[in-house]
Specification:
The complex is a heterotrimer of chains A (426), B (117) and C (482). Chain B is an alpha+beta fold and 117 residues long. In chain B, 15% of the residues lie in helices and 32% in strands. Chain B folds into 2 domains: 2-42, no CATH class; 49-110, CPE0013-like (CPE0013-like fold, Roll), CATH 3.10.530.10. Chain B has helices at residues 31-42, 75-80; strands spanning 2-5, 14-18, 24-26, 45-46, 49-55, 61-66, 70-71, 86-88, 96-98, 108-110. Chain B is elongated. The radius of gyration of chain C is 23 Å and the shape is globular. The chains are: A alpha/beta (426), B alpha+beta (117), C alpha+beta (482).
Amino acid sequence: MSCAVNSGMYDVIVIGGGPAGLAAALAAREAGAQRVLILERDGELGGILNQCIHNGFGLHYFKEELTGPEYAGRFIARLAGTGIEVRLNTMVLDITRDRQVCAVSRQYGCQMLQSRAIVLAMGCRERTRGAIGIPGTRPAGIFTAGTAQRYVNMEGYMVGRRVLILGSGDIGLIMARRMTLEGAKVLACIEVMPYSGGLNRNIVQCLQDFDIPLYLSHTIVDIRGERRVEKAVVARVDEHRRPIPGTEIGFDCDTILLSVGLIPENELTRTAGIPLDGRTKGAYVYENMETRAPGIFACGNVVHVHDLVDYVTAESQRAGAAAARFAAGARAEGPALTVENGAGVSYTVPQAIRPAAAGKGVDIFFRVRAVYSGDLRIVAESGGAPLAAFRREHLAPGEMEHITLPKALLDKAAGSITMRIEEVHS
Amino acid sequence: MKELICIVCPKGCRLQVDEENGYAVTGNGCARGAAYGKAELTNPTRVVTSTVAVAGGVHPRCPVKTDRAIPKALMARAVACLDGLKLQAPVALGQVVVEDVCGTGARFVATRNLPRG
Amino acid sequence: MYDVAIIGCGVVGAAAAQYLARRRLRLCVLEAENDVADGTTKANSAILHAGYDPAPGTLMARLNVRGAALARELCAVLDVPRKETGSLVLAFAPEEVPHVEELYRRGLANGVEGLRILSGEEVAALEPNLAPVQAALLAPSAAIVNPWEYALALAENAVENGAELQLNCPVTGAQPLDGGGWRLHTARGEVDARFVVNAAGVAAQRVHEMAAPANFRTVPCRGEYYLLDKSAGGTVQHVIFQCPSKEGKGVLVAPTVHGNLIVGPNAEDADSTANTAQGLAQVAEKARRSVPGLDLSASIRNFAGVRANTDRGDFVIQWAAPGFLDLAGMQSPGLTAAPAVAEYAAGLLEEAGLVLAEKPAETLAVPRKKIRFRELSRSEQAALIARQPAYGRVICRCETITEGEILAACREPIPPCSIDGVKRRAGAGMGRCQGGFCSPRVLEILSRELGRSPLDIPQDKAGSFILTGRTKQAPAKGGEAQ
């Protein structure tokens, strides 16, 4: 027996059944793709939203506040009657640039699937202790916030009684409230940067509501305990994020939750030889979310880490519709403008725009390098001349920003577009 | 005078609310901020989310939320009234789990379909 | 009454058990922790040294070269991942060249085959990511190995051949018996044996002192490491050493059998496996001498191990008292030498009166063979899933480890009792997310297979509990529930 090509030719195969994959598959079907298949490694659709039981999702897209399972549930419900095929408990082992997908599952065995177009929607993973190198012992009781969230919300287990949270990313803040309401004592949230990485709303409703202190410009410098965490030592850091001797504070805790960043999950992308952008850690994409491998599209957190699922949905709908057009034989072509980082900008998505394929215009998503406030301009320029400027009063690295460049402006650009932040001094 | 961070939008205005002067708000960038500042001091409310145990489902816990915001001070008591409850799968999205949470009139409802496992 | 009781089941104890279990003996192995290979054996550089380093004439020199040869055979028979990458010792400055030449001479004296001194150009051609060097010693027989799987495979083979392994069984005292032999007091009762083999690693001096006053002193020496993601695994092809100094063999950079890159260790007198900011910074700085462009942002884990160094400068293989044999001071190259230490120890036991009659070959365990899903061809994978569908469920996404492999590990002669026990056997959780994704799933499988509550599954050693209770257990208050 071998892994023969089976199931015939698909129009669009979507890898991942979280919010990105669901939106992409539905959009592909609506845009005319006949055979659409979602491959999901878990036992159900919805991805990480299933464990995000808190509310705050959908304010942009549905104009109402939903919990994670409700947001996912609305898209899952839309699948009914569309004919979109779903294979659960199915892990994709590799993909090729000619759009062959090899996957395995208990139910279907080893599957070699062929598609006209592929949408990558694998999401992201959490940074771990090893990636940030916290000194100390290596006892049990150190969890990434998302792993703890799974244990608590999906499986009904508590992961600790006295908790310290490192990193003020949103999942860590959400878990501070969740653990508190389940009876744990959350001692503090420790953030190495001088500003929080999470949304203000979460600082207020997850920390301040429960009198949990937030230590900005601090980090954990030592973990103690041989078998289970017994203590963490926290110190203030200088402007180079180096601990300042003499500022140590000890916390007697049995648990440390890490909320120190997310990394797009691009192992399939990398092994397929699809170029990645070192800034986003995701694939380099064009205006229609097509990677540099024709017919392979990417969307959601596998491209760049979003803070609002609503934007994942919108981006994924564009990717799905574009994949359907590709499957039908349409090609996005024409010379491409690159989008470059200027002052204050840490990345942009897309990284390249083909004006001929851009329709009415292009949304450019980006993040900034520092917290800005005052009279601000987001400037898009080409060849040293400004194309457009957009006013803002507040910009922060924790909040993804976007601007829309209409087609008429794209046609004025040559070679590249540079995005930069300008502070207007009165 | 009480200081708050406004959460209406990402700007995060630092509000000062004067409890002695009719909860007058300063530091706000817009009218929504003023309304938030006043409500946060006079009657702060939150939607509460949690889980409840389920027998015979694909997961041992089902997520729930209050179907409207309840007074912030009641959050812990609201969550505690889920302790010891056990639903039987299947659970339907929107199914009422607890009526009249802590006398607020709000109900805990399931936030997903949970089929039999 | 056992013929032999071995104290400690790290690689040295396991090798001794594997050797002796093939003989007609009553044999037991007493391990203090809840799993084998859970001390220095799991936290070292994972190198099978060629043998040019120890001074000719020492036990280390003799047992290193013999051990490397035995390890080649054992790894093949026991299906232990081992790769003969060869090693390079770099001379950055002209004054280090004589050092490399000295190692070459020692290697020749020790009987190491294939040694060559390479020019700077030859080294650059072999390893383009290295800093410029004057010369380097190439030892083609140096190899990398999975050290804990090696020890585990040896211990499993011993158990299959009749050795009795007692886990969670620290030895607390020993007294000589009238008429020869020893009574060991353990956490799980008394054990009588004609001969005792002390393979207690860093604790070997303490065990020695149960039988006789100390005549060597243990100087535990911590070494700290970085383990880098597979994306950095191809940085070097050989094990890259620097010229040895008084701090040991120096910081190395090497591929691992799993495809990662290992960087370390420093050397500091400390009996602790905690990482320190200073230690890691030292490792980073020294490693960049060899590989200037080393990308430590690809780190997925830091760890530290403790070498069982002593004041002797050589392995301490001696009779602590009649019938009580020390296999102590197993600092580097202890991992490499382990099977030769076992062979040598068996010779000493035989001289002391232990009869080493071989068991009939047909009664011995068959060669070990592990299924590693990700190493199979697509058609082999398809056939395997068709036969056993559990191999179609991928549990560890980073390393592509299937439920089938985890179940197989649970049914081995020494089953795991912890999440890290599964990691050491099946590889789940070894990858870049460090178990973030798979550990809840591994916990569930382990709980089911062991028939124990998830609350009782530790991360690693006894007491390293993961979960502290269940949510929503307090009784409902009357009137509020529906």
